[in-house]
Structure formats: C-alpha cells, structure tokens
Design brief:
single chain, alpha/beta, TIM Barrel, eight-stranded parallel β-sheet, about 20% strand, binds pyridoxal-5'-phosphate
C-alpha cells in the first residue's frame, strides 16, 4: 500500500477514536491503537512508523518473528493470534504483550520461556464471548477459575481481557459483547488477586472499534482500516 494512504488511514482512525471519546467522555490518551500488520510487508509497517504509529499486532508466530527482525525502526510488538504452546519460545523476549492466553497450559509455557530469560511479560486472557467453535478463548464461565490459576505464575502479569466477538454487519450488534467483556473484567477485579490488574480491555477491530471505545476499550486492534484488505 502507498505510504501516504497508510498515514491518512491512521490519522482518520485517530480522529474517529477521538470522536468516540467525546461521545462518552473518555480521554483519547487512554486508548492505544494496535496496528494489526499480519500478512502485510515490513515496508507497510515502516510507513506506519513514519506516520507516528509505534505499536503493532501480529497473529502468526513465524511471520511475527521475521518482521520484528526485518523492521529497523523502533516499534513495540504485541502477539494477538491463536498460539500453540510449542511456539511460545520463538516469541520470548520479542513481544511485550500476548493478548490471546486462553488456557493454563499455554500460560505455563509463557511463564517457563520468559522465566528462562529472567524476565516477565504482560498478558491478557482471551474470552470467547460468542462461544464460537472456530475461535479460541476461554468461556465466560471458566474465566474466574483460569485467572486464579494463571495468577500464580511468576513470569507473567495479567493485565486485562481480550475478545474477538462474533462478526456482525452492524457494529451496534457487537456492542453487548463489548459490554459483557467490561463486566467480566469487573468480576475478575473484584476477586482482588495478587498479580492481576484489570487495566486493559483489548476489543474492537476495523469495523466496530468506535462502539468498543464507547464501551471501555483501552486497546483497539485495527488491520484492514489501516493497511487495506488482506
Ligand atoms: C486480524 C485481526 C484483527 C484485525 O482485524 P481487522 O478487521 O482487519 O481490523 C484484530 N484482532 C485479531 C485477533 C486479529 O486476528
């Protein structure tokens, strides 16, 4: 994609986030834009960095690691896709947050790999709000149990929740899912567990991020609206 278009798209999205914030009385600085660069070349990422974007989300381990090596400008990387435990080792030390932790065995492997580095990583627990077969995520029912188990691990910090709700043509139809994620975060917070802070709600994508911002998103993950169709 043409660099100028990427810059324009980012500026457009920032304006839309600001407008959504005005509607609900939030501060735009409380919302981080995660530019989802999966399947897009490093040159597109460099164009986004030139336009002031510093945070990127990737969904596939091999591609993620290759791009982190290839992109020369300074950037921060989050892993947002489905993650197999045997691939965690490739991400260790390279990403600053994993949005997609949905089971204890995966959290244990993240703990082990960051532990080897003598460091730790921020994670979000992914909730499968629509209970869709095709999507990863723990169920709302299992969430509290999973959080209390994962919270015992030393080399990660639970920072919040992430969801990828069912796709709906009308963003208003997704809004109840965003609200549900916020309510689940409040339930987790109420447990008062050490090592658990419900600071982050990662929700909202290209076609529904304004509704997500109005419902409390602190991170929106946007690919297509920045980099074009994949
Ligand atoms: C691809 C992807 C996105 C971005 O979706 P767009 O509709 O292109 O904005 C967001 N979150 C996750 C987990 C993704 O895999």
């Amino acid at each position: 994609m043409i660099a100028m278009d990427i810059a324009d798209n980012i500026s457009q999205i920032r304006q839309q986030i600001a407008a959504a914030c005005v509607k609900c009385g939030r501060n735009p600085e409380d919302i981080r834009l995660v530019a989802v660069s999966k399947k897009k070349p490093a040159t597109d990422i460099e164009a986004a960095i030139a336009a002031g974007q510093t945070l990127f989300g990737e969904s596939y381990v091999q591609e993620c690691v290759a791009k982190i090596d290839e992109v020369e400008s300074a950037a921060e990387w989050h892993f947002i896709g489905g993650l197999q435990s045997n691939k965690v080792k490739y991400l260790a030390g390279k990403v600053t947050m994993i949005h997609s932790v949905d089971r204890l065995s995966l959290a244990e492997e993240i703990d082990r790999q960051w532990g080897k580095l003598g460091s730790s990583v921020d994670i979000l627990i992914q909730v499968n709000l629509g209970e869709e077969q095709t999507k990863s995520g723990t169920t709302a029912d299992e969430l509290l149990k999973l959080v209390s188990q994962v919270a015992r691990l030393q080399h990660l910090r639970i920072k919040g929740l992430m969801a990828l709700p069912p796709w709906e043509e009308d963003p208003e139809a997704v809004r109840p899912y965003f609200r549900q994620l916020r309510e689940l975060a409040a339930q987790v917070e109420a447990l008062g567990l050490p090592n658990v802070e419900m600071e982050e709600l990662s929700m909202g994508m290209s076609h529904d991020f304004e509704a997500a911002v109005e419902e409390g998103a602190t991170m929106v993950r946007i690919g297509t609206a920045i980099f074009g169709a994949r």
